[in-house]
Write a structure and sequence with these properties.
About 0% of the residues lie in helices and about 55% in strands. The chain contains no helices and 22 strands.
């Protein structure tokens, strides 16, 4: 088993006024040669956008981009003609493929929007750009995992061009559970959204991250009420 621990207070940080962003991996002006990526997981940004603020139109290509709102309303527009709003309980994926232009704004003027922006390297380049969004009832799945991303459009949740599976779970205190990997070539990056967990003997607090590879399964236990965790299983090659 191989592990890499990223405590919340070791992340890169940039505060632009309208945007307060924490970077688990190297991003923009934050660079750490030891924190470029975890397998196919390239970016994990914990963003807060002030009321009325947002990212103007900018390009992406050959990347799978997943947005997970934690609170507030995030408005999205892109060059495929998509225009929508995503809220807590919803997830958005965008395959940039051959190239796409998009913008993201806080729909509200008076409250911030908080969301996770995640980039995953695709398994193939030059695919047709696409967009997908779905709502999930995480409360009905309490004390269990809700799959939100997978490689197949026939599976639960959304799909991306990568052999990756994302799950979110909300758990009561002292709830134990396990996660079995889909492939021996994959690893899992565990990111604590709220509360605390113990993962394979390692205690993780809010916004801590732990990458684990060369394993077939994880053992997890919540240490607080309403503890929320994001599991991102991605290829390591």
């Amino acid at each position: 088993m191989k592990t890499i621990l990223h405590k919340a207070n070791t992340r890169g940080h940039a505060n632009h006024g309208w945007l307060n962003s924490f970077h688990t991996f190297s991003f923009a002006n934050y660079y750490d040669p030891e924190r470029i990526h975890f397998g196919a997981l390239r970016v994990l940004n914990d963003d807060t956008v002030a009321g009325g603020g947002g990212f103007g139109t900018h390009p992406h290509d050959n990347m799978e981009i997943i947005s997970i709102p934690l609170s507030g309303d995030l408005e999205h527009k892109d060059s495929t003609g998509t225009h929508g709003v995503i809220r807590h309980g919803e997830v958005q994926v965008m395959s940039a493929g051959t190239g796409v232009q998009h913008s993201e704004f806080n729909k509200n003027q008076d409250i911030p929007v908080k969301f996770l922006q995640i980039w995953v390297f695709p398994k193939e380049k030059g695919v047709k750009p696409r967009y997908q969004q779905a709502a999930f009832d995480f409360e009905s799945k309490k004390d269990g995992l809700q799959q939100i991303v997978s490689p197949s459009d026939d599976d639960d949740g959304l799909w991306i061009h990568q052999n990756a599976w994302f799950n979110i779970g909300v758990f009561g205190k002292e709830t134990a559970f396990d996660y079995k990997l889909h492939s021996s070539e994959n690893g899992v990056y565990v990111f604590v959204i709220e509360g605390s967990f113990v993962v394979n003997g390692q205690i993780l607090d809010k916004r801590d991250g732990l990458g684990i590879s060369d394993i077939s399964a994880l053992d997890l236990k919540s240490l607080s009420d309403d503890a929320e965790v994001l599991l991102m299983e991605v290829p390591m090659g």
